[in-house]
Amino acid sequence: MGLRTLAGMPPALSVQALEKRYDGVQALAGVDLVVEEGELVGLLGPNGAGKSTLVKIACGLVRPTSGAVEICGAPPTSADARRALGYLAELFRFPGWYSADELLSLHQRLAGSDGDRAERAELLRLVGLDEAADRSIDTMSKGMQQRLGIAQALIGSPRLLLLDEPTSALDPAGRRTVRTLLEELRGRGVAVMLNSHLLSEVELVCDRVAIISRGKFVAEGSPEELSHARGVEIETGSGMHSFPDAEREDAPRLVADLVARGESVYEVRILRTSLEESYLEVVEDTQE
User: Fold this and answer.
1) Which of 71, 161, 205, 268 could form a disulfide with 81, with the two C-beta atoms 3.0–4.6 Å apart?
2) Beta strands across the sheet bearing 66-71
3) Per-residue pLDDT tens for 162-181?
């Protein structure tokens, strides 16, 4: 049974003026966020910023103090929302004596999925575990268990996936498998909100990033939009020439000047801040 591609639906996730207070502590201070179908959004922020609270409210596990959340147009505690949502927690534990196939079969029953062995086989293939269907979980590496967790989150063809640190236990090959999977899900119209501290992974796969600090979103945009220029470097026969205040548009003139001075130019690098650098700048500003 294949994952369904859906169109013409409300946003996969809609968050409006969301607030949550715990005994006087403001965990969320009026946040707004929309995740459209087929969109991969990275949710970033320091510990205690409000990420987990937002995810728990979206899952229907915590009630907000005020504001509204909808999963595919339905309240998060409704049966419709739960059918539309797949979730993988950062800290999870599956029964070690189950095989991968048995675990997915259990979650099919729990989710009320009408899928069968074909759905389980496809999900194991998607996460690169098609050869491990009959292998017991306690013999799997942590990375294999992480990928199995992603497979169980996909049971029932959810329109929205909430993934908490899905690549934290994976080696480079495993992270590439997950990136490929997320790109395939994007093509099928599945929305993903990805919470990760591996900012290099978020930068590679996410369409948009939302940075939360002290219960508020402090920056939002594509990884490219959140970065900024930090100069031009030009390698010549006499060495490296750095122009920290230059931008992309300045590069042809800088090269022409160096050639006019008799330099042989071998490489030009347009420098921009990484997502990690941009994230640290934004978060450190809000912590002051």
Assistant:
1) 71
2) 25-35, 13-22, 66-71
3) 988 777 777 888 788 888 88
